[in-house]
Structures are given as structure tokens and as C-alpha cells.
Design goal:
By secondary structure, the chain is α/β, with parallel strands linked by helices. The protein has one domain: Alpha/Beta hydrolase fold, catalytic domain (Rossmann fold), CATH 3.40.50.1820. The chain is about 30% helix and about 15% strand. The longest helix has 18 residues. The radius of gyration is 21 Å and the shape is globular. The protein binds 2-acetamido-2-deoxy-beta-D-glucopyranose (NAG) (6 copies). Belongs to the peptidase S10 family. GO terms for molecular function: serine-type carboxypeptidase activity. Its EC number is 3.4.16.-.
């Protein structure tokens, strides 16, 4: 079920099975292969090359009438009386190859015309944005039975029109009829296809063409989101086709710089009582995270660091783990938004792999999985996204970096070290932010970028802290800091 690394040298010990195979594990496989000897993962994303390129028109197909065909009548198991406009289907991004990306779109139930359009991307690389749609911030969550849905009172569609994209081809329902396409999955092609998707989707839903547009995502989407935003801005400057009205990005527990994120990870393990002093010292003695290659000693001590953690949920270190993955809870009592099921990925898989659900979503029969097993490797992955972050700031984009503070995979220390490397002037000093008289988290505003934490949230922030996550997201869209008391 794992993406096979391109070059095999020695692996980070993967976490115990119960926690294996979700977004950040794909990330660690990739990092491992990037830092291995003989790696053929290209590490660069050269801003200048692309900036000087001539614009070449992208594929745009007529989309008349397709939106109506994509309208979802009702999702199987949807609560009675749920009155929302949902759409889903494929958008072709390359007709020659026969490559199409799947989307799920939820219009805000109230006053949708006055609300922005937000694209959501999960990470991996190679994991599905249906994780976000059905386990984090979408209008429904799946009950523990894997068959029925309950309403998420804190859905992000309360404040925005939410577009979820499965990307690149090979992830979830997104596919290519040219199977060799799967061998070319990487940062660059992912951004290029997502851009073509977007301009075609805007033809299908033309009422959104001039709407304020934002992109949000988490984990390895710390690459996808800034890279797509960059692609859009670059094309907006040159295109005679669609201008996308992008205003900003919000990225959560985002991997944006290999060196600082790696250091932050091991410091977090140590300061959260998950690692010994000896192992922590050895890591900083033997590992050079600035280098693009690892050493046997470094691999040995990083493996030790993961062993020392034991079988905990590294994505949410104080949460229970999934002990009965294949035993679905048949209780008729509906699930609760305040009680996140640790077996969520099995539940998600059960629901989206159901043929009636796939029919309702307008997709062909697919063995749906939350992380891709058809993409054999990742061809290019920038070592750092910081130059793109700088470019976005210089181009006036709103930029929020948020972090659930109980995640040990892409922890708050990783985000802090990465942002520190940008050396931005501080505009609002570190302070708590409040929701319902409780501290929702902490924030520090830099010139051009906001760092904000969510207290008690793991890697998938809205899963465990839905109310705080929605408060944060609303503040982001309004462009105001959440309250200081
Ligand atoms: C790793 O770094 C070396 C030296 O800086 C460079 O020559 C090489 O191309 C890099 N390898 C990759 C895969 O980027
Ligand atoms: C892929 O092939 C199938 C079967 O020929 C076809 O129905 C479908 O439209 C093709 N997909 C794309 C995106 O062209
Ligand atoms: C856009 O420019 C390209 C060449 O750069 C040209 O082929 C195309 O016809 C133009 N399209 C429109 C809509 O003007
Ligand atoms: C690290 O190396 C030591 C000595 O060779 C070995 O005993 C140990 O098993 C290794 N640990 C890991 C986690 O690979
Ligand atoms: C099943 O779900 C119900 C309602 O949420 C809960 O009370 C019960 O403890 C769950 N049982 C198991 C075995 O998880
Ligand atoms: C999805 O369902 C099909 C048919 O029941 C099954 O063969 C396949 O293994 C399932 N895939 C996953 C990822 O669970």
C-alpha cells in the first residue's frame, strides 16, 4: 500500500501498523528516498526559469451543462433534511493521455454567492483530499459504522464554498488512461495539472470565475498549496486565458523546508518526553539535515528515535490509537463531532469504496484508498518551499501557517524553525487567541505571514478541534486576527 521509494538505502522505521500509511508517512518515505545515496528525486523548483518562460496556453474544454450532471442528489447515509448543494465528478486535464482529476464541491448553504471559493488539498504526497472532506472539515463526517453520515456543525462550508481536489492522477478517484503518467508524479506535474483542473472547473462553474479564491491544505500540501498559488500568480501575469482571483493561502502542519522541519521534528520528540536525551544528542551529532544525503549513523539514530516513541498516534500524541481496525462499530447511536474515531481511515475507506457511494459521486468503480498505491514514486520534490513563500508574500498574498500543537509528524517546532529562517519582522508579538473564553491557541504575526497554533489539535487540525479550526479559518478569510481575550 506504500509508495515505493525511488532509491532504497535505508528507511525511517515506519510507525506501527495502526498508524501506517497516512499522509505524513508518505512524506517520510519520500524524505528517505531524497536523502538516500543515488537518489533520482530532483530537489529543485527554480523560480527564475519559470518566470521567464513564455506563456503557453493550457487545455480548456467546453464545460456547458456538466455542472448540473455533477450535482449529487444525496450521499448514501446522509442525514435526512441536510439541505446542501454538493457536486462531484471528473475534470479532464489532458485529453490525449486521458487524464482526469476528481473533485467534490460543497456550496455554502447560506448566502453562497457572497462567500469566497476555497480549494482544499491533503498531502502525502499521494494522499486523498477526501480525508479533509469526510474526516476533517467537510459538511459530513462518517459514523463509525462506515455507512452513515452525521452533520459537522463546524464545516468550513459554513463560511466558504469548499472545493476538494484529489491530486495528482492516481490518487483516489483521479486517474489516467495512460498508466505511464503515474511514473511522472512529482511536485511540478501536480501543480501543472491542478492549474489546468482549476481553469476548467471555473468554466464548469463560471459564477465562481471572479470570486475571491484561496487555497488551503495540510502536511505535504505545504508543497502543493504554495506551488499551485505560485503557478496561478505566474500565469495570471502572462495569460490571455483565465485569471484566477487568488487572494491567499492557509497551510496546516505543513512540510515547507526539509532542513528546518527535520530539526523541528526531533526537537519536538525530545521536548515532548517521547525521546531520550542520548538519542536526541546523537541525532544532532550524526545527522546533517542541510545535506541532501543521509549517513548510516544518522539513519540508525533516527530509527532509534522512532522506536523510542512506541506505538502511539504520532499525528496526535495524546489521542487513543485504533485498536480494532476492521471491527466497525454497529452502534445505532450517531457519532459525535466531539469524539473523533481513531479508526477514521478504515471508516473512510469502507465508505468511499462502497459501490453505491461511488455511484452517487459519479465515478467509475474504483478500489478507493486514502493514499495511492498506483503511484510508484515521486519524481521531484523541492528541498525548500521558502523561496515560493517569499514570492507569495512579495505578491501581496495573505499567508497563514497554522499548526495543531499535538502533532509529532510535522510539529509546531518545524513550522517555527522554518518561519524563523525567513527572518521576517514581527508585527504582533506571540499571544494567546481565545474562543469561548478558552485559549484556542497562540499566534505571532510577522510582516506578510501569520503563524497560529491550535491548542489540543493533531496533524489533521479540524478532526480533533473542529470548533477552533473553524474559528481560525473564518478569521483567515476575514483577514483579521482572532480575539486576544
Ligand atoms: C546533492 O548535493 C550535491 C552537492 O551540493 C549536488 O551536487 C547534487 O546534485 C545533489 N543531489 C540531488 C539529488 O539534488
Ligand atoms: C479513459 O478511457 C475510458 C474508456 O475508454 C473513457 O470512457 C474515458 O473518457 C477516458 N478518460 C479520459 C479522461 O479521457
Ligand atoms: C492566446 O495567445 C496564444 C499565443 O500566445 C494564441 O495562440 C491564442 O489564440 C490566444 N488566445 C486568445 C483567446 O486570444
Ligand atoms: C543501531 O546500530 C546498533 C549497533 O550497530 C544496532 O545494535 C542497533 O540495532 C541499530 N539500531 C537501529 C534502530 O537500527
Ligand atoms: C460504539 O459507539 C458508541 C456510540 O458512539 C459508543 O458509546 C461505544 O463505546 C462504541 N463501541 C465501541 C466498541 O467502540
Ligand atoms: C475496495 O473494494 C473492492 C471490491 O469489494 C476490493 O476488491 C478492494 O480490495 C477494496 N479496496 C480497498 C482499498 O479497500
Amino acid at each position: 500500500m506504500m509508495i515505493k521509494p525511488l532509491a532504497i538505502f535505508c528507511f525511517f522505521a515506519l510507525f506501527a501498523l495502526s498508524n501506517a500509511d497516512i499522509q505524513a508517512n508518505k512524506l517520510f518515505e519520500l524524505l528517505k528516498s531524497k536523502r538516500s545515496r543515488n537518489s533520482d528525486v530532483l530537489n529543485t523548483w527554480n523560480l527564475l526559469d519559470e518566470a521567464t518562460d513564455e506563456y503557453s496556453p493550457v487545455y480548456i474544454a467546453p464545460q456547458d451543462g456538466l455542472a448540473q450532471l455533477d450535482k449529487i442528489v444525496a450521499l448514501p447515509g446522509q442525514p435526512a433534511g441536510a439541505d446542501i448543494n454538493q457536486y462531484s465528478g471528473y475534470v479532464t486535464v489532458n485529453p490525449t493521455a486521458g487524464r482526469a482529476l476528481f473533485y467534490y464541491f460543497v456550496e455554502s448553504p447560506t448566502d453562497s454567492a457572497s462567500k469566497p471559493l476555497v480549494l482544499w488539498l491533503n498531502g502525502g504526497p499521494g494522499c486523498s483530499s477526501m480525508i479533509g472532506a469526510f474526516s476533517e472539515l467537510g459538511p459530513f463526517r462518517i459514523n463509525s459504522d462506515g455507512k452513515t453520515l452525521f452533520t459537522n456543525d463546524y464545516a468550513w462550508s459554513n463560511v466558504a464554498n469548499m472545493l476538494f481536489l484529489e491530486s495528482p492522477a492516481g490518487v483516489g478517484f483521479s486517474y489516467s488512461n495512460t498508466s505511464s503518467d503515474y511514473n511522472h508524479a512529482g511536485d511540478k506535474n501536480t501543480a501543472a495539472d491542478a492549474y489546468v483542473f482549476l481553469v476548467n472547473w471555473l468554466e464548469r462553474f463560471p459564477q465562481y470565475k471572479t470570486r475571491d479564491f484561496y487555497i488551503s491544505g495540510e502536511s505535504y500540501a505545504g508543497h502543493y498549496v504554495p506551488q499551485l498559488a505560485y503557478t496561478i500568480i505566474l500565469n495570471n501575469k502572462k495569460t490571455n486565458q483565465t485569471i484566477v482571483n487568488i487572494k491567499g493561502i492557509a497551510i496546516g502542519n505543513a512540510w515547507i523546508d526539509d532542513e528546518t522541519c527535520s530539526k523541528g521534528l526531533f526537537d519536538h520528540l525530545w521536548t515532548h518526553a517521547l525521546n531520550s536525551d542520548e538519542t536526541h544528542d546523537a541525532i544532532f551529532k550524526y545527522c546533517d539535515f542541510a545535506s541532501n544525503s543521509s549517513s548510516a549513523m544518522c539513519d540508525n539514530v533516527t530509527n532509534k528515535a522512532f522506536d523510542e516513541m512506541g506505538d502511539i498516534d504520532a499525528y496526535d500524541i495524546y489521542a487513543p490509537i485504533c485498536l480494532t481496525p476492521n471491527q466497525r462499530n454497529t452502534s445505532t447511536i450517531p457519532g459525535s463531532i466531539n469524539n473523533f474515531d481513531p479508526c477514521w481511515k478504515f471508516i473512510l475507506n469502507f465508505y468511499l469504496n462502497d459501490s453505491m457511494v461511488q455511484k452517487a459521486l459519479h465515478v467509475k468503480p474504483t478500489s478507493w484508498d486514502y493514499c495511492s498505491d498506483v503511484i510508484p514514486g515521486w519524481t521531484d520534490s523541492a528541498v525548500t518551499i521558502l523561496p515560493i513563500i517569499k514570492y507569495l508574500i512579495e505578491n501581496g498574498q495573505r499567508l497563514w501557517v497554522y499548526s495543531g500543537d499535538t502533532d509529532a509528524r510535522v510539529p509546531i517546532t518545524s513550522s517555527r524553525y522554518s518561519i524563523n529562517a525567513l527572518k521576517l519582522p514581527i508585527e504582533t508579538a506571540w499571544r494567546p487567541w481565545y474562543l469561548n473564553k478558552e485559549v484556542g491557541g497562540y499566534l505571532e504575526a510577522y510582516k506578510g505571514l501569520l503563524l497560529i497554533t491550535v491548542r489540543g489539535a493533531g496533524h489533521t487540525v479540524p478532526s480533533s478541534q473542529p470548533q477552533r479550526a473553524l474559528a481560525l479559518f473564518s478569521s483567515f478569510l476575514e483577514g483579521i486576527l482572532p480575539p486576544s481575550s
